[in-house]
Design goal:
The protein has a single domain, classed as Endonuclease/exonuclease/phosphatase (Deoxyribonuclease I, Chain A, 4-Layer Sandwich), CATH 3.60.10.10. It is built from 6 helices and 12 strands. The strands form 2 sheets. A 6-stranded mixed sheet has the order 3-4-2-1-12-11. It has a 6-stranded mixed sheet with strand order 5-6-7-8-10-9. α4 (163-181) runs parallel beside α5. The chain is an alpha+beta fold.
Amino acid sequence: MTLFLRLLLLLGLVTSATAAEPLRVMSFNVRYATAADGDNAWTKRTDLFFATIAAYAPDLIGFQEVVAVQHDALTARLTDYAFSGVARDDGQRKGEWSCIGYRKARFTAVAEENFWLSETPEVIGSKSWDAALTRICSWVRLRETATGKEFLFANTHFDHRGVVARQEASRVISTRLPQIAAKLPALLTGDLNINEDNPAYAVLVKPTTPGAIRWIDSFREVHPTRSPEEASFNGFKGTTKGSRIDFIFHTADFVATESTIDRTARDGRYPSDHYPVTAVLRWK
């Protein structure tokens, strides 16, 4: 909170509810460290990866494709953040995390948990439909220290092959998270391996299931006209032509005032094979 807002609070000219600062959010697929990426291996892009995060200075980060060595690096180097989430294969450290980072100075975790994108979401490591791999959604309920406001932040990574699995994953998320959020404001980040033309996207933004969350796509909110240069997957090649597959969604409790595809590069190298996507969300 800024000094000016603190002064207004002390003078009673605003309430803590009206003084809530915007949320700076990032979604970042890190590209798993065990891939045979040669010159783009994790060890050769680690510094650029962390520099990219530092330059944007997010309050909230949803990571995808994080394996154990990367999880350890995140928790060791991002000391201003606390983390939530587990690895998807065993609910501990085996497989990839879709973990969440949040600023310790600004937020406190009230509750946190995980569920699997399957017909049995409570079963650790479960997989259903035509999914090629186990997939997880991690969430944390956060309280903003300065205002007492609470919200739910969820992060996920959809299957890269399963057509049915992606659509069902959207349904599971949009019907399960309302039960968890219990009418709280909510955010959802993730690499969904789909674009806006996919039926799984429609399940999120135009749900037909009673009680499901209607998610708002922050990027499309800020940039209503679709462009052919919106690729968020770059394959370490700097690609821009194409559509987004990485998203930051929010409920109607927020308004997106900024949203970008962060194409940070250094000497022709990229921090990951995905561009991080970002959004600034203002409380309504």
